[in-house]
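Researcher: First entry.
Model:
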Amino acid sequence: MLCNERFVMLLYDRTNPYMDVNEARKKHFAKRNSVQRIPPTYDALEQHMKRASALELGNSYCTRLMYACTTCPCKMPEFSALVLPLVVHAALRSDTIGRRDVLSCQFSSFFHHHVESVTSNTGGVQKGKEMVTNKAALQVMLNVVDFLRTQMPQKSFCGREKITPYEKNLWLKLNFLEVAQAAHYCGAHFSALLFLHLHCEGMQSAISEDIGVERCQEPPLTQVSSHPDAPSLTTLLLQVYSSLGDRAGVEGCVSSSRFVGTEARALCCHHRGQWIQSFALRDVASDTFGMVDGLRSLGFFNTVNAFLSNSPKFSEAQWEAAWRLGKWNDSSFEDRLVEDDVSRWDNKDDEKFHCSLYLALKSLHHQDLPSLHNHILTARRGIANKLKLNRVESSSFIYPFLSQLQMLSEVEAVSDCISCLNKFEQLNTCISRLTASWGRLDMKSGVAAVEHHYWEPVVAARVSMLQAVTTTCKIHQLKSLLHTTLLNKSELSREDGIKGGVGCEWAVAVAKLLDPSLPPPAAWLTKLEEAHVARKRGDVQLALRSLQPLIDQFQLQENMESRHEQVVCRGLTLYGGLLMDSRTRYPQSIIRDYFMRAVTMLEGSKEGDNTEVLEETYYQLASYGDQLYRQLHQHLESDAIQAKRSNIARSEEEVERLEGLARNCSDLTERKELARKLTILKKNILIDCNMLKDLEREKEDYLSLALNNYLKCLIVSEKHHLHIYRVVALWLQNLTLPRLNQMMDELGKRIKSCQFVPLLYQLVARLSCQRDQHTSFHKVLHNLLERMSVEHPHQSLPVVVALAHAHADDRIISAKSSRKHHNKVVEEDRVQAAKSLVAQLKKSAIREHVQEFEKVSMAYLSLANWCGTMDSKSHSGQQVKIDRAQPLLQLRDLCYTAALTRPLQIQPSAHYDPPLIQGWDSTCSLVGGINAPKRLTVKTSDGMKQFELLKGRDDLRQDAVMEQVFGIVNQLLAQNNETRERGLSVRTYQVVPLSQKSGLIQWCNNTQAFGEYLIGNNKSKGAHKLYHPKDYSSDVCRQKMMAAKEMSLEKRYDVFQDILEHFHPVFRHFFLEQYPSAHEWQRRQIAYTRSVATTSMVGYILGLGDRHVENILIDRSTAELIHIDLGIAFELGKVLPTPETVPFRMTQDMVDGLGVLGVSGGLRGDCEATLGVLRSCGEVLVTVVEVLRHDPLHTWTLSPQQVGRLQATGDDDSMGPVASASMAERVVLRVQQKLAGVEDGFPRTVSEQVAALLQQATDTANLSRLFPGWRPYV
């Protein structure tokens, strides 16, 4: 490049002495020369050279330039690597002399030699072929392949008339299995998965004749099992998924492939945390490396050290065991260091790191700071070198290096303490800084969000470095910090789901050794952690024995220091919980002696920082009270108690009969006998009645205990904010109890109203004007809703006003009608109560806001019922001018009302400053439908415009409740560690009912219907027509299903099989088209898989039906699914004329987007994780769903109009709208059964339930019975 610069400058000025074009430009500017005499900048010159090179590639100079780029790497390697993809692309694009075959041969040969070199057993690389294992060279070649995949060819490589986007992968004729091997070798795991996907597709095409239609629902990896490359494909897939730490991928490979050996099964057990099975399989396979890896994962480093003590070579595991065990003076390590010079090691960065860390910690132990810094520098260089030589695509690849860098930084931080041992003030400052720094990375902050195997080495290194220091320096503060770190290590290990607390015992045992040299609270904390560890293992008795001396010591101390009270209360709460688990004492005495004592101590404490302990104590007490309440409630509803009640009733009837006989009996002896029988019978009745009364009273006491402490927990903190759902459920289920209403009135006022906002629908559903019944409940509820409306008007007013305007549509239509006489609208009691609440709010501080919002709501309702110039010929997408007389167009620059369909975060401070509505566009768009929904454009004060869908003559209240459930599910998934790490969630959108028949829906931008991509808007084009032009069209498939509708099930099945044979899935191409880069492709496929899993499980629980291809949207930017039109729920699809026979949509195209593992891969694990959370938090969902049971306006069957719209049949006479309490009870009961895992009358585990649901959803026989309009073949 330097020669080129000099040449260019001489062209502009032969007398120019400069070698740098930028310096020459400055001088020419200073001389004020003309523009023509000023040379270009360096960047412009570089770009010009690149363009010139690319232009020359189509001519005869192409070969020369390629030769120059490949033969002069020493002179311009970066430029050669940069221009090579352009060179190859230009050569292929202007291919007139068979360059594609030549280049394909060369590239294939390179990747083939790489695979041979890597997989050979010779232990080295053949001479002259070192380049094929050079990671830098491999990355250059992979960059060429990646660049070509982004370029659309000018002609089809497959002889098609129309070029498909898939042909971007066919510029070179490559064996993608070998390319995937090279990508995996370079650490480009996402690229490896993409290339494996492409190779698997090629394998499917090669043996397509052997894959019958009966195997169409099998994962692609299973379908290609007869191909010669299948074993290699499976092996590499396992390696890639294992490198990514993808447990679901590993399990999917094992379950989908028929070429799974002992090592693969052992790897699967390893990822599941099934250590005994893993070690057994490793032993069978004589896999020493795997055994050592498992021991390291479990933290058995003494065993690792003993196991490898006689090994001729020191491995990475031994160096790690050395620094973890503190082998600072072991002679074997000294001898090893003499034999090898660590600084000269090549391609052993992992071993270099652990050895360098060991040497650094050893230097720390001996206080040799210069040597320590040298070893840290060596370790950092090794990390940088590995990052440079690998093709980083996944953040999971970087996490181990971030952990290592964090460890090195903390070693330096501890060394700062050593450097100032003789300076007391500086030493205290260093230790304080170190403690604060480590405190910011405790379990409750960033570390908790990182997986166990990333943060555990950091904590272990802290322990090792502190042990290295404290053995030579008797510094009390460092010993205290070591003790705290050990307990933190144990606590964090207990939280790990895979390893189940392995390593806790070692940390507790070492902490015990430090207890004698530390103040008393240290020993107490160690005992507490020891009890927690025993409880984690399920050994309740050992936990009780560990805590018993501590409890006895607490009881002997009368005047306890306030700083020790938190430890005491934690011990009392834990001991009480253990007694509850063991059931060795009566619950009342446990609550009195332990829980209440802890609460009393904390409430009377003068310490101001006991909020966390107090909140946890309240929560534990509330949980146990709730548990006892449920047990008693179930017992009182059991068959035994019902039989006892029946027996009491029969006994009372018998008493009446005997008393009648006694009155009419004249024989004295017989009267005495009757009197004796009556006495015994009455005593038995009294005993049974008193027992039932005691049980009811005890149940009410436990109910009050639970509700009281739940409320106090919510007052103290918002950590357990999800328990507000349980609070509301308990209150609404027992609204006749004055004690509970008084409790809600007194304590509810102290809870922030923002915590009640998510339950607005549930609370508003209980409004009533009938104050003669449950007077205290309605008063408390009214006051709560008024407070919520005043403090959070943007969330509350739409719900309250929508109920008050429930029948506003009828009045608007009646006012426009020419008829003089119309039916009078009868308002329900709840609607009148809502109007009363609105009237009360008009006298409050938000009266102007309420008045403005009512105007906006009525304006929306007027437009929703306006037809204007629309007629039957109006089509979707048509622009319509809104009548100027519409009230909505008269509203401008609103002062209080924000856009209703823009999500607004609830603010605990109750302070809101959202963008306000400035107006609406005067035109709207039609989106299709018999009720003429309109897409409006609303303008807000922040300068933004957004779309919103206004629907009239359509009840959106159920859609709103469904979206509320989706939002709650997202909260539950975010609370759980596993689902949070997986990133599971459900895509939601705003639904705002304006009345009983109208509402607003948030417009989902950058989305398209699932069917629009696959079969096009006209149902005969789309991706299916593009990739398989000879297949049946979607309309032909539907016609075939319609023709077979009245046939037998066997005939319908045969017809459906024929359709599947001539209608192949293509949705995998969506990801290749939309996301060409491997990283984005894998990321979006994972997002799609997670979205399918969550929506399927939630949809199953709620009985969501009518999931045809137009009711599912896909976000083109994220590949997530969005379900719309949620009106067919709670299994109403099963009562249609053609019943729905599947729990959710899992057709061949849905499965096609999941990758080579199909439903056996990540989908199954995501489904199990989602359903596990839903089942564990089932009561929250039931609380939300129960709002519909108390909604007198909700109908539990479909109207004839709905049936006609869904399935155009003539058999609708038997169906009509029914508001039935028994139907509502059935719906709630069915939801509870699903959440309990009850299917076909038998309870199932989560994995069994998911397996059964996936089998039902993908069963071809079930799909063949669906309504043709559902398009089960898509």
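Researcher: Second entry.
Model:
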Amino acid sequence: MSQLAGLTDVFNESQDGLQSHGRLVKSLTKIYNRVTLNEFWDPFLHHLKYSLIIFKQEPAVDRTLEFVARFVTSFMARPGGKELKKDGCHSDEEEAQELPPILLKLFSFLLENHDANSRAVRYRVCQLINMLLVNMGEGAMIEDQLYDSIFSCLLVRLRDKFSVVRAQAVLAASRLQDPTDPNCPIIKAYLFLMNCDPTADVRRAVLSSIAPSVLTLPDMLERTHDVKESVRRLAYQMLAEKVHMKALTIAQRIRLLQDGLNDRVGSVRDTCASRLLQAWLRYCSGNALDLLTCLDVESSADISAQAMESLFKKAPVTELLSNFDLLTDEHVVALDSITAEKVFYWRCLCVHVKSLGTQAEQYLDQLLPNVTAFCLYINKVFEKLKGMSDPEEQLTKDFVMQQLLKLASVLDLSDEVGRRHLSQLIYDLLVDDQVSHTLIEPLVNIYRELYLDEMAFIDQLVTVISDVRLPMSTEVKQLSEDKQRKVDIKLAGLRVKLNELREELDECVETEDFSRAAEVKNQLKEVEMNRSLLLDQSKPQVVQISTAKSDPTTLLKCMTVVCEMLQGVHLNTLIPSLQTLCETLILPGVTSGEAAVRNMAVKALGLCCLLDQDTARTHLLLFTQVSQFDLETVQLTALRVTFDLFHLYGMEAFLNVVSNDTARQNESGDDMASDEAMSEIEAMMSEMNTGVVDDASTPSCAQSIIRFLIGLLDSESCEVRSVVAEGLAKLLLSGRVVSAKLLSRLVLIWYNPVTEDDTLLRHCLGAFFPIYAFASVANQEVVEEAFLPTLLTLMNAPATSPLSEVNINNVAQLLIQLTNSHHLVKCHGLSVTDITQSCCHDNLAVRVCNEILKDPNSFNMRVLCKVLTCLEMSEGNNSKLKELKVLAKNLLDEVKDRQCVKALEKFQQTVKQLLRATVVRQSVNGVTSGDDRAHVTQSDSESESPMQNDTCISSTASVRRTGRKVNKMQTVSPISTQDDDTSVSDAENSVFSEAQQTPIATPTPVATRTKRTTRATRRKPVRDVSNPRVNLRSQINAVATTPAKNK
């Protein structure tokens, strides 16, 4: 038709760029006005269908759909158009604005074909619906019937089996959600997809579309822990743009900064610092002090300091100094306006400027006074804050003093006079009763900087401890009444005698008897001297005495000083001063009635034991008793000390120490564990290459303590379990303990549902297993030894045991991965020949086959038969392969279960192919024996089913790929085998249909506990578009948009 001329040119030109769409909309509007809607619709839809069949991401297609959406929605804003009423707009009382007929017709077409068989059509339909809703404007309103149709359509597409379709449906449904309705189906579907969808793009689409509310905010915060860094990065971005800081609690703010600024991916850290932190700073009007107040700097000093450092890096030093107006002319914060936030910001800024190096040294003079002036300032601050008695004010005082003392480390200590003043200040603060133990750490750190010599440093702190515990006091002593009376009588006699001598002296002078006058004068001096002595004796005397203080506050302070002192020394033995402290202060503190004092005493004693092996041997049993009978806090400290001693000195250092207490318990029959547990420990100890001599009557200290520590893995306290599991894992990793049974216990405790909430234990063991197994061949052999005992324990677990809920297949898959020798090649660069000689999977195959032959008809044998199909045997181990061939034949004769027989047949074929490949390779090298050729001939002559022959291939690598493909096909639903994307399960469909929320899935630790499979479906060919711009005229005229019956 001549009236529709130019329609094709408009669609072709719309692919070039968005800048021409405004002109093209006017051109297409002119064409639209010249004809009726029905005449215009068919050619318009014909050109639109070309874009709807393209699944590949093409910018030209996106621009075409954007042009179509802009065109059909342009009639809503054009007053006087033939699709609008004359008034052109709706009032607040109207229910909905009348939509243009072409827009309604396009919506109708899209909703009719949203369930088309082609994934491209479904994807483009959702994309176009999203564009239409966006271009309709913010205040657009639609009829309820159309709303319900779009609503139902998008709910169906939200559970499409293709992730790209789900992502576009999420974007399209964003304007249909109602954050005020707690039962909104769109919101519930969003929450499900955000937490449970396996595709990161879908989770990202939900994050960018979901509206923040009380219901959705916890799930948005949870996405900051997503396994994909792109999702975590977008989560921080959306929280910065959509969520006000006041909508978050202080704990949530601190957790966001802690996780974001310490993320393992740099882009996530940058997003948290540049987006989230900057947004919060804007909410505080650019005032960093208000931001610190919102973060509660007193309870989150570390993460607040990290946040300040991130902000300082974004600004030049000159700008930071020009905006810093908190200091007086003396370069200190005014005493009348000092706060925790000001002092903290001052300290962070000084630390940042000093970290810049020599080019910023001149700026420190503008921020800090000299050392002497700073010491006087700290004294003034301490005297001002000294009178605070309220507990909250006391905490604020301690925090301010901590920041000031940490600020002292930034000062220039090259001035000798300043160093002496600072040393005297630290001493005065340490011995002051008003200084709590929380200030000990910064005070000792300053002492360590002042006294670089370790012996001088220790001597100074030993003197401080002595002065704190034995302070000098003055006492006024007066004479008793009897003594005072006697002194008074003597003084009276001397006064009488003095008067007599003076009179006699006068007479001698008058008579000019000078010789006698001289004698009287000497007597007079002697009497006056005696009188002076008596007067001195009668006066009160001031005496300095030292009194030992044993109150809990003083003991805790002294213990803290000892711990801080010992943590930084590098001695090889206990010097006499430390031995004296250990005997007079630390050991009595272990028996103190205060738990805090006992805890610090145990820690201090442990540090002493780390310096001297004999001291460790003496007090090891004491740590064991403390970890058994004391409070949980003290128990944890004693357990950490015990593991540190074993890790430092090794198990052999404690073999000759006999536990008298344990021996007495054994004699009285009051032992902690049963005879079976004792035998288990003895067997485990025999696995260690430490030369332990098993003697039930006098068990060694190492045996008793290891038995006790393993028993704590079943403790009711999650913290105790975590500390013990971490300690045992460290001993295994360092080689101090070599035990397959212990490794099996750790695997079981990791999978035990009881430890599901022990996040620290789960992550610690999850990181430990792969590091340990792939560290050496010997470690993989230990995992091999633990393989069958672990699986058999789970198989034989009673129904009442939590282990009965563990998925045995997942455990088997983990252990198979840990014993895979190819990981050793990747981690250590070993050659295949190096690991062939000790291939764990070959040995495991023999062990598993023998275990199946013990009870071939057991139900649990299905797991072991499946394990055989997952093992990757080595090709060069000819003797093992021959043995496995015989075992496979015996298994097929004994096992009757159909599923097991199928797995065993697959295993048999794998063994045969490996044997054939080995013989072929040896024949090429000319080393094939007659026995090997006989085995190959026998294998070829055996009858096999056609299916088995089809799956046989000639290379080891192909066998492994085929094996994984079969496993995958057994577990994938029929729908998943038709296309190449992830589908939502039936359980998810029921959740969508019922619009119910699903709990957040716990992220898998480092060593994943889920079965690893590979994709087994064949990808469909994708159309290759050589030209980046899709030529719509070259496409076919008909578009297959037939709805599928079962979608």
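Model: Note on the second entry: The chain is about 65% helix and 0% strand.
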